[in-house]
């Protein structure tokens, strides 16, 4: 009996679905610009309906939170929503674009529940302002104040619900003004963190070659010191309260330049003379969101604390030994002299430290109990979700 020829793979339904169509495209069947715009209009209408439906649900959630005495803002929940949206996406929208869309979507949803006020070191378009927008979006009231101390005071006096302050920079390390205020007002807690990728620009009205004075916050100048020494050795470096204040000054002086963000250029009518003048390619500032109370465990947390120790041999090593014993990783530590150091023979020191985990996690809780017995003072500044790096 003759054998049947094998089935044609192209003839099978599965193969036909994958095989390229050898026929030339029919121009009559190709979508026109008008038909594509009609399709966009149809999708936009659906988007608006879905956005309003989502907002209705957000209002109901806000009512439940208010009835149960819960906070309107939950950083861990918002991070979860963004992560889920990015995971569900198959393109072509970039992940960063999706993150920005959902940031503003959740910001507007919060505003329907309650208007939040966030204090930051101003004026607007400072890096603190950009960090505040990156964390809370535009649908909140961003409140500029004149100093880091004022941010703490605004939160402490309940004039605002949250404040945002720089904690450390990858180039320069600790921000002393912030650490000092945590010592003065230890009752305030870190609720979240923002890791802002800081891209410094040289902004001005005139030509780069005519710059005689460069203004910015001391930390920003320090983060660009090698570039400035090589490219503007003749310019005087002038420290001001913020990078945005520097931009305001440069706006009025053609021989002045500011080290500030690219968004500040547009806000103050300045030209971007040079981009990315920071000495380290991955220059990042970590900001802390401060509030009256901390955050619940999420499973991906970190804890920040203050340790006070006498200036004796081995005190630090003995104090932090329980972390290693209990398998708790320490990721950051900075020493800070106490106020009375200059007037005593054997001064004490403060140490600011980060560890992995939440203060309520059993290994962390056990470690902290043991560390507390070995310190003159132990203050937990907050347990909060680890933040992802975002662009300024």
Structural write-up:
The chain is α/β, with parallel strands linked by helices. It has 3 domains: 135 residues, Periplasmic binding protein-like II (D-Maltodextrin-Binding Protein, domain 2, 3-Layer(aba) Sandwich); 77 residues, D-Maltodextrin-Binding Protein, domain 2 (3-Layer(aba) Sandwich); 90 residues, ACT domain (Alpha-Beta Plaits, 2-Layer Sandwich). Helices cover 39% and strands 25% of the residues. The strands form 3 sheets. Strands 1, 2, 3, 4, 5, 11 and 16 form a 7-stranded mixed beta sheet that branches. The protein is globular and about 80 Å long. It starts with 12 loop residues before the first helix and ends with a strand.
Q: What is the SS-derived class?
A: alpha/beta
Q: Helical proportion?
A: 25-40%
Largest sheet: 7 strands, mixed
Give the beta-strand count.
Answer: 16
The radius of gyration is 27 Å
CATH architecture of the largest domain: 3-Layer(aba) Sandwich
What is the H-and-E element order? HHHHEHEHEEHEEEHHEHEHEEEHEEHEE
Distance between the termini: 76 Å
CATH superfamily of the largest domain: Periplasmic binding protein-like II
CATH fold call of the largest domain? D-Maltodextrin-Binding Protein, domain 2
Mean pLDDT, all residues: 88
Portion of residues in beta strands equals: 15-25%
Low-confidence stretches: 1-20
Number of domains: 3
- Per CATH, the class of the largest domain reads Alpha Beta
Basic shape: globular
* Count of alpha and pi helical runs: 13
